[in-house]
Amino acid sequence: MTEMVFRQLDVSTAEVDEIEARYEPLAAAVRELVAATILSKAGAEVVSDVLAAVRAATARLQAEVDSDHAGVNYNATGRSWNWGNAGSGQRNAVAPPIELVTNPDGSTYADLVLGAAYEGPPGCVHGGVSALLLDHLMGVTASKMSRPTFTGTLTLRYRNPLPLGPVRVEGRVTREEGRKVFVEATITGSSGLALEADGVFITPTWSPSLEATQN
Amino acid sequence: MTEMVFRQLDVSTAEVDEIEARYEPLAAAVRELVAATILSKAGAEVVSDVLAAVRAATARLQAEVDSDHAGVNYNATGRSWNWGNAGSGQRNAVAPPIELVTNPDGSTYADLVLGAAYEGPPGCVHGGVSALLLDHLMGVTASKMSRPTFTGTLTLRYRNPLPLGPVRVEGRVTREEGRKVFVEATITGSSGLALEADGVFITPTWSPSLEATQN
Fold it and tell me: What 3-state class would DSSP assign to B95?
């Protein structure tokens, strides 16, 4: 069995907020760099200079890296942070720029804009990126922000191509049976409905391992 | 209907290869920067310096950007390039570092290593990243490298958590019915089988729009 460790760290909420605010602009800038690396027509000399600058910048950050993944952390007041999450991590430039909103009835949505880094078919969002968005949104919807859930089964029906640009993702819980939470979701874009999805999410029987550390 | 334009460009294969070789090391370096942005404990001064360096590097690349997405391109000899593809683009630092192998019987696989940028549950690959890998591999498997296909339906069964680290993705066509291609795939990791997937991929009735341009 793969062990998942949710770490309790002795870091104040003010400090967590400060670190998040320190790194969010950098993650946004790295996202722009990702897109420019795809799109630029710059020649060998410019690319060589940029490569050296990126490596130097990375080395400065790496000098203060002491782990190979960010994990999911929380502090004594219940503030949690999950900065590396590929679906939503505030410090992860791979993650689509998503901010979920929960409606009073528990349904959820997010409006976001997807650019060059998320392309699949020409001018359209990659089907796997749509799957990443849906898995993330549906998992959060199932969790109701109050319990861990894991994806059990996810069925995605691709109805129409999803153009790059503005995108809306919406989800809602349709029913629960024991530890199973059933969730439906859609993605719509500038051409209308693109995907419909059904998912079964599982609330685990085990408690996550909680590891208290002093740093 | 969303228009998809596959562009024929007047660029020699040697030049395409040269551009790809120029940018691939940069995309690899940007991937390292993405991970370092997640993991670093560097303080405000270092992060501020790195932010300025990243923005300056990005500006140099952006000075020679004239489009908002990379598209899918090919030349008169049939060399195609799809550098921005979120599942596999050689210049896209969002894309997992995947190189597919096709077996003589048409089945496919890829071995790759997934690090901090692809995390979901602590120490494990994000379920949506697994979906991205599967959608990409299954689409390529369905296309047999000789025809366009689009994802119709994708069903993912998450069997066990997938630890970060070495991962194998495998796919094969199980049958075809008219324009439908049925594909099965799995992901295994260091703890064994993590996901099973079934997909229906569609070969379109329309020909892609082919647009010949002179640059």
Answer: coil
3-class DSSP assignment, residue A133: helix
Residue A215: other Cβ atoms inside 10 A:
8
pLDDT tens track for A12-41: 999 999 999 999 999 999 999 999 999 999
**C-beta of residue A141 within 8 angstroms of C-beta of residue A199:** no
Of B65, B94, B126, the CB nearest to A117: B94
For residue A157, how many other CB atoms are within 10 A of its CB?
16
Look up the ipTM and state it. 0.92
Nearest-Cα distance to chain B for A105, in Å, is: 25
Torsions phi, psi of A106, nearest 5?
A: 90, -10
Provide the 10 A C-beta neighbour count for residue A192: 10
Closest-CA residue of chain A to B7: A122
CA distance A86 to B125: 8
- Inter-chain residue contact B65 with A41, CB threshold 8 Å: yes
Closest Cα to residue B32, out of A94, A46, A203? Answer: A94
- Give the model's confidence band at B112: pLDDT under 50 very low, under 70 low, under 90 confident, else very high: very high
H or E stretch including B135? helix B127-143
Residue B151's identity, in one-letter code, is T
Would you say A162 and A130 are in contact if contact means Cβ atoms under 8 Å apart?
yes
Q: Helix (H, G, I), strand (E, B), or coil: what is residue B8?
A: strand
Chain B residues whose CB is inside 8 A of the A171 CB are: none
Q: A173 near A182, Cβ under 8 Å? A: yes
